Amino acid sequence: MTVTEKLQEMGVTLPSVAAPLASYVPAKRVGDQVWTSGQLPFVDGELPAAGKVGAEVTTEQATELARTAALNALAAIDSQVGLDNVTQVLKVTGFVASAPDYTQQPAVINGASDFIGELFGDAGTHVRSAVGVAVLPKNSPVELELVVETAR
């Protein structure tokens, strides 16, 4: 089953590629890899929630937002090479805007990792960083970057 077919089976539609907030492109192909810029969890151009995880945003909400940010990153990758040409996911980097005492960043970024694993199967296993930060653009609770390998 292709990734596109798997998305259809899951009832998931790729969103439009999010417009950059500054001077960068959403994704860039380099050889047989595609690197995404940081993707926020926009839905129809809006953040569904804002603030720090562990304060204004719960872990559960942030986990769902991480999944949404991953979907936005996949849309950026699709615009470069088509998702069915991704041979494996290499790296996920997740940033979590965290309350000072919040330590569950890995659980939040599991929202992205679990979704990628479900979508890509074994090709979705990846290395990862889950980093707590003071603030993210637009007061977003999460931001996500992906690096994938593609068929040449």
UniProtKB/TrEMBL annotation:
It comes from the Bacteria. InterPro entries: Endoribo_LPSP/chorism_mut-like, RutC-like_sf. Residues 7-144 form the Endoribonuclease L-PSP/chorismate mutase-like domain. This is Endoribonuclease L-PSP. The lineage of its organism: Bacteria, Bacillati, Actinomycetota, Actinomycetes, Mycobacteriales.
